[in-house]
Amino acid sequence: MIKEQDKTHWPRMMYNMMYRLGTAPWDSGRTPPEVVALIEGEHALTVGRALDLGCGTGTNAIFLAQHGWNVVGVDFSSVAIQQAHKRAETIPLVTFVEGDVTELPHLGIHGPFDLVLDLGCYHSLPAARRPAYAQEVARVMRSGATFLIWTLAGTHRSFLPGTPMMQGREIAEHFARHFRLEEDPQENDGRRMPNWQTLYRW
Question: Rounded distance, CA 142 to CA 162, Å?
Fold first, then answer.
């Protein structure tokens, strides 16, 4: 059985080790086309404040800042945040904070934000922390703001302790109170879930 304190201690150690060794498979250094489309596409969002949850080494936060967004990136990996700071030394408008994404007020992070990104953070949280995460995201977002989230599909299980397989309707259940969910029509059978989902704050 995994002790409660180990649910964050061991994942943090693993993440720090992977970032230190440069072996984190998600840390490609490239901003996904889905994010690029939000910022540069035909229906690009108006520049404002953005929050990048689970920002890693800062790739997407830096991309947003380079397009005029005022960005805060948060990650619980001290190594990732150190690397993000180094990458952004000459880039204005971006701030990186080490800490727990479910406790943003304790990190001095307050809204409102116009855009929130989560590219793999939510599904790495222990199941018991996910509702609190959803509440925090809703709390710091401006009405009408956009939340873009990428999660592992429901057939995958996280390799980290304390992070069970995602369930098909989990995103909708945790976020429905505060968000309108734009679902992928090819993945709406209630059992599977799309990797990318866009939510809009009521």
Answer: 31
Distance set, CA 11 to CA 25, 91, 142, 159 (Å): 15, 30, 31, 9
Residue pLDDT, tens place only, 75-100: 999 999 999 999 999 999 999 999 99
Sign of CA dihedral 161, 167, 172, 174: negative
Q: Which domains does the chain have, with CATH numbers?
A: 6-201 (3.40.50.150)
Which residues have C-beta within 8 Å of that of residue 8, sequence separation ≥ 6? 76, 100, 126
For residues 81 and 96, the answer to whether their CB atoms sit within 8 Å is yes
SS3 string, 24-40, reads CCCCCCCCCHHHHHHHH
pLDDT digits (tens, 9 = 90+) for 91-130: 999 999 999 999 999 999 999 999 999 998 998 888 888 9
